[in-house]
Design goal:
heterodimer, A: 150 residues, B: 290 residues, alpha+beta, 50s Ribosomal Protein L5, Chain: A, five-stranded antiparallel β-sheet, two-stranded parallel ribbon, ribosomal protein (chain B), Ribosomal_uL5 (chain B), structural constituent of ribosome (chain B)
Chain lengths: 150, 290
């Protein structure tokens, strides 16, 4: 397991000379001089992957808070379960409707049924589709935009 | 006659008493009941456990997008009417008409040496979804400079926000000065919210600004719904965590990304990934059965 000093050494292997020059020698006593801003950033980054502390600190709660927490989590779990059940039921209903419609179409018009259930190859979602966000750009949609000719 | 759960099997009886009072249905060692091990009995989901991690601490755009839009669309796109289970090629058992066949291995499957998976009926229960993203960073020059592997590890930590694990060489190639046990890079498997966060950073910030990336090749895939592509060392510099600290990163490393989906065939995995903004280019090939 790598500790942060080894990690820092690793960084010195790739950082530019003027940065590595800014790094002071590591002393055990309390640091009196200030670290260079670059060096402290490196130490911050490397300390994240170091194995200095394997077990995180346990949350300290009094008995009352623990009971409160358990109660909230139980309610939250129920809520999640209901949410999932609702979602599954909706999907299931949609699936059953699709099956029903296909069966009906097969009886009514076999040719249309063949066309409707043929496997569509190379199906893609629209490349203009975006994952919705709460913070859209100032100009969320470019209405004049058309894809460039190839 | 009754027997103890541990001695019953040796006596040729069932290990668990089925006559009430039923006891010793769960095997345990008495030392596990000691007071000092009490904290180990606390489940991981309890706040009092040191392993407790809060779940769902923030809004997840990708997950919501999947539930609201992608899921039902994918179910409709992958729907096939009157489906049957398509049985894959399996190893063929010997006929057993010769005593010499008793300890011989099964014959290889038709059409190849590897068995293939069955394709199950698609329903509302197995709509394809993105399960995990594996990032693998293998640094060839780390044979010369071992510290580069550690730098690659820090780079993965920076762009994903999760802790990566080191990868080590397994083979001995003297001409490359490669020996088993050398640290050669890092890898990480992202799931859940960190995966979705990485995915949005990739498709909204990194890939649009890449100078070399034209799209994921349509020919990639391992036939089980896992899509792989790679980013160059220059593309990595567009990640905001690296870009904000560019003076610290004179050297970045190329990474290989593998998108693990629950799709049963590759074309469906590509359809799914296109919903998250990954472009696909090139000629697509379709499996014989899907």
């Amino acid at each position: 397991m790598m500790n942060w000093k080894q990690g820092l050494r690793a960084f010195q292997a790739v950082v530019r000379p003027h940065i590595s020059a800014a790094q002071p020698t590591l002393v055990r006593a309390k640091r009196t001089t200030k670290l260079a801003p670059g060096a402290s950033r490196v130490i911050n980054m490397v300390s994240v992957i170091s194995a200095r502390k394997k077990q995180p600190r346990r949350l300290k709660m009094c008995k009352e808070d623990q009971v409160r927490h358990q109660m909230i989590m139980a309610a939250w779990k129920l809520h999640l379960r209901d949410e999932k059940a609702e979602r599954t039921n909706k999907l299931k209903a949609q699936y059953e409707k699709i099956t029903e419609a296909c069966d009906e179409l097969q009886k009514l018009d076999p040719a249309l049924y063949e066309a409707a259930t043929a496997r569509e190859k190379g199906k893609r979602f629209s490349p203009e589709m975006r994952i919705p966000t709460d913070t859209p750009p100032r100009q969320p949609w470019q209405f004049d935009w058309s894809p460039p000719d190839k | 006659m009754r027997a103890f759960s541990t001695s019953a099997r040796a006596a040729g009886k069932t290990a668990v008493s089925i006559v009430p009072p039923v006891h010793h249905t769960v095997k345990f060692r008495k030392s596990q009941l000691m007071d000092k091990y009490a904290s180990l009995q606390i489940p991981r989901s309890s706040v009092t456990s040191p392993k407790y991690r809060p779940q769902r601490t923030c809004q997840d755009r990708v997950r919501e997008h999947h539930i609201n839009t992608v899921e039902s669309d994918m179910m409709l796109i992958t729907y096939a009417h009157n489906q049957q289970v398509l049985v894959g090629n399996k190893p063929r058992p010997r006929k057993g008409d010769s005593p010499y066949q008793l300890y011989q291995p099964q014959r290889v499957p038709y059409g190849g040496t590897q068995a293939t998976k069955d394709i199950k009926v698609r329903s509302w229960r197995n709509v394809p979804m993105l399960e995990a993203i594996t990032i693998n960073c293998f640094v060839k020059p780390a044979t010369m400079n071992h510290d580069l592997a550690a730098a690659a590890k820090v780079m993965l930590q920076q762009i994903t926000g999760e802790k990566p694990t080191s990868v080590y060489a397994r083979t001995n190639v003297p001409s490359w000065t490669l020996r088993p046990g050398m640290p050669m890079g890092a890898k990480i498997k992202l799931t859940g919210q960190p995966m979705n966060q990485f995915l949005t950073t990739l498709t909204e910030i990194v890939l649009p600004r890449s100078k070399t990336f034209t799209g994921v090749s349509n020919s990639t895939g391992d036939q089980n719904g896992n899509i792989t592509f790679s980013l160059t060392a220059d593309d990595i510099r567009h990640f905001p965590e690296i870009e904000g600290n560019l003076e610290l990163w004179p050297q970045t490393f190329a990474i290989d990304l593998c998108f693990h989906t629950s799709a049963q065939v590759d074309p469906e995995a590509r359809t799914l990934l296109s919903a998250y903004g990954l472009p696909f280019v090139g000629k697509e090939r379709y499996p014989a059965r899907w």
